[in-house]
UniProtKB/TrEMBL annotation:
Name recorded for this polypeptide: Amino acid deaminase
Domain (D-serine dehydratase-like) ranges: 300-399
Source domain of life: Bacteria
Matching Pfam families: D-ser_dehydrat
InterPro entries reported for this sequence: D-amino_acid_metab_enzyme, D-ser_dehydrat-like_dom, D-ser_dehydrat-like_sf, PLP-binding_barrel
SMART domains: D-ser_dehydrat
Amino acid sequence: MGYDAENVGPLGPEQKAVPVAAWGVTAADWVAGRPALATLPTPLVTLDAGALDHNRAAMAGWAASAGVDLAPHGKTTMAPSLWRAQLDAGAWAVTVATPWQLAFALSAGVPRVLAAYPVLDPGVLRWLGQPRSARVLVWADGTDIVDAMAPHVAGSAQPLDVLVDVGAPGGRTGARTPGAALATARAIAGTPGLRLAGVAGYEGSLAHDASGASLATIRTYLASLREVHAALGELYDGEAVLTAGGSAYFDEVAAALAPLHEPGRTRVVVRAGAYLAHDDGFYRGITPSNRDTGPRFRAALHGWVRVISRPEPGLALADGGKRDLPFDEGLPEVQAIRRGGTAPAGPLEGAEVTALADQHTFVRLTGDAETVRVGDVLRLGLSHPCTTFDKWGLLPVVDDASADQPAVVDVVRTVFG
């Protein structure tokens, strides 16, 4: 699967993942030589080509067997080449989270975009009202949202599809009662320039683990989506979209909603986004594969940091920090060591990341890990892909992060504005 190497052009110092020796060389020519990981600067984050392929195919296969469509959340990666790969694998649409992301997705040629929020910007609404081939579906959770949209969509060349956003107490956006959801739907259906297109929700903000109590909360919420969808049946004009599903509970979404999936009548769409890169932290812990109800994913993201100081026993400082590595859903974990930065990766027991500063990783060393020396490179498992991608404008793709000598085979370009 080709990503961005053919389109990036000459590389330079503005791309922090690129070695000095590659400055002025096109990305295509650079990766054609399969540069060794050891030749790249640190700190570094890489993508694993095999893991990306595996995860994309695993999720596509799961969706087909579960009887749902996919609209992966594009804000996870903000990488058009990864979106394209997901669409080529059968994804029905791409989901976004801001007006700018929506505009960018359309400019990138995405044929269907789920904008999982209310679009209130007048300029964006007027722009969406112009003739277009791509389909856009936006959210509304109250009649006040509809009222705010109405002046800017009147007279549009084509109606804007709107999904009723159904929430729950303690959650994020979303109508809090069936009555509020029904009133919103009626307002949408009665507003020129808008079209009632279905029901949307997000269960991930209601629970953060896979305990019995959390799963019961998720199931109760998903039942409320079904009830609202059933109540709106007479208001629909054509196929309705029924969508939920982040990366933690998409198995529960399929169990609750897939029986309604009947393209032409009701299309059930799961919006999981983190599955493509997965992680070695939050999503590893909460993935449905741990419940034997979802596909098994592999972490595609790895951090690489070089030890730059051993100022005292039991402590190493490495050259990555908050500007390079995620920390919002748990600190990175030390997985392996490359002695001298060039040796094959080997195990390292007794090394633990305890803190990140802006540009430093603090690593506590015990036992055999005291053998770590300045110049060694540590491979890190990362937690939360969403805040990894936005730190890197260009990510090298290696053939296999666990190989003795990983080689760069492509690059992925991200766009975060």
